[in-house]
Amino acid sequence: MPQEPSRFIRPLAIVGFLLLMIGGGAAFFVAGQRTQQQVAQRQAQERAATPASDAAPAPAAATPTLTPTPTPVPTPGLSASPSPAPDAPVAATPTAPAPTSSPDSNAPPASATPPVSAPVSSPVSAPVASTVDVSGWRAQVWPASDLSTAQIASSHLKATFSAVGAGLGSLVLEDHFETIRRERKVVVQEEHRVPQYDSLGRPLTTADGTPLAQVVAPLAALGVEVNGRFINLSVDAAGTLWRLTPPATFEAHVLDESGNTALRVTRRYSLEPESRNVLVEQRIDNVSGKALDVRWIQMGPIDLPRDPVSYIGEKRRLRFGYILSPAYDPTQSFVLSDDFLIDHASALGPFDALKGYAPELVKWPNVTSRENGYTLSWIGLTNRYFGVSLHPPVRTPDPRPEQKRLSTVETVDRLVLLRPLDAEGRRNDVLALRLFSPRVSMAAGTSLDLSQSLYAGALIRREITSDTAGAALGMRGLVVYTMGGPCAFCTFGFLTSGLLRLMLFLHDYVAFDWALAIALLVVIVRTLLHPVTKWSQIRMQRFGKQMQEMAPKQQKLKEKFGHDAKLLQAETAKLWREEGISPLGMLGCFPMFLQMPIWIALYAMLFFAAELRHQPALFGIFQTLGHPTFLADLSEADGFYRFTTSGDGIHIPLLSALIGPVTGLNILPLILGIVFYMHQKYLTPPSSVQLTPEQELQQKMVKWMSLILFPLFMYNAPAGLTVYFLVNSALGIVEHKRIRKHIDKHDLLNIDKIKAARTQKSPGFFSRLQQIAEQQRALAEQAAKKKR
Description:
By secondary structure, this protein is an alpha+beta fold.
């Protein structure tokens, strides 16, 4: 018989279990996921050789032409055929922690202001074989103009533009605001200005002391690689490389060594009236009169803003939509995203205090995509409530299989835009994706269509699937209701989807209020689980009562046979048989554990449900009565009293790393502590026997946990989650009270009655198994005696 555990082990085990159940382990899970994915990333980098497409070429030096002759804007049409030439491997060049600019292909005289350009990667060591020497080629420089004045808008989106590579200056969601005050609209994409540093970490400045920075814009054109030589199309200091034709058509020319136009690049942005997609029609025309090998390089989406409320840590993620190999999907029509849920830290890669981030960390293709033969369909970035996804243009509900492939992108790697540490000392760096097209052989007079589309909106499945591209390309996979980490499997997708549909139905057709819909959802779930809860509670209380009655007899056995562990174990098993106690009675709590995935799924669904964002509780009654912040937004803390509106608040060491800064007084978590205390009181009624010091210590620690730690952890939790816990705990009190009443009414804890019932009915399946095992053991003992 094993030794008696220490009087402190069981209370500590209960404390740890409760911490896990209330969500205290959520942060640990996220940290665990980051560590595992970082290790996996390192292993993938060691296993996979970096192809030539994983690094961008350095631009060739040239003198820009300042006064070009305008060329008519072409109409997108023909597509060039891809070149069969394979890529040669490239060794990545170490970089400083901050992204540094490569030499500009359109560098101005030494006296001019240093250029501000988007980052360009290391040179290609083995260029593609060329039929034309392009060492003297360069980009046309147009007279300076303010491209940022251009903008387009629809009912859902508003886009402004950047002079850097004719990219997006900003992309604004017209129907979503940052706060309930509706002062600023949500910006999901914007250009970033990144300070530049030397190898010693000192900031670089111009001759007049102006800090040197580079601008990185979403979807910006970085340049075009022609026969292995890179021509910069980002920006230079003397003017701009792109000419604007209102409202949002940009044109750039690549000149040969004679100053004649060899390539004409056109980018046209447009918005459909009711769509949430920004269409980028981009095309390269070969007007050189010669065959050219061309590769397009551009920026992709950039990180969405970090969530202002950092409850349970970072929630930004990188997603890929993909098509299975023809062996598994012969029709090539289904787009999945299950294999790629990459959290922000893993997407950035490991950080070394001395070396910074690893250079040019390739995100696609990766080990998983290569081994399974996946084809890229879309690239997504999300935070808690919003997301963007770069995908091929889809204009029909049932596109052809080849139209679902993002054929304009062969390789995706990432750049890191360094930011100062936050108030908690955590890194706040920005992830920027860089895209490389396949190398294409363009015959003279042909065109290369590189059109793309960018979806932007809230992570609401109904909105995503209402969009033609969103439905056809399976972009509902951007919406994931899981905290991540080792327990991510607990939030089964079918559970969260079913619970969300039920909550939407309750809101749209029954309650017409989100707080009431949450309450009704909890009532329905608890009612459906009531039979399991009732069975489990009766078994656990019966087993506890039996163990209390048998405790004196066990103590006597321990005093009599304590010197022989095997004999004590045999006598204890005999006593259990005589008292009619089955060891399986300890499994009475097992059905409660089976219910945990449902409650975890409900918790995660409520936490990530964008439908609750900026939605008041109880029809906004508190706002009608004059309280502007209390329960005005179910996605944030209840806000009974706010002493700051900036979001900075009070940073409490360690605690703020989990729940974020304290910005005011929230009363729902305090009420929740009281309800949990009452719940615990009904779960552990006064014992009919004298409690041991160990048992008294257990009860005290549980009560303190309920009164202090749980409300503390839930202090900054979204009000929708707090409403869920309040209703669930209140119903738990009523349910346990009814179960106890049922037990008392039918005298289900009467030991004599239990024994009589056992003798009258035939033994159950597990009892018969136990009897067979005992008979076999008795036969084995008899055989051993005869042998001796």
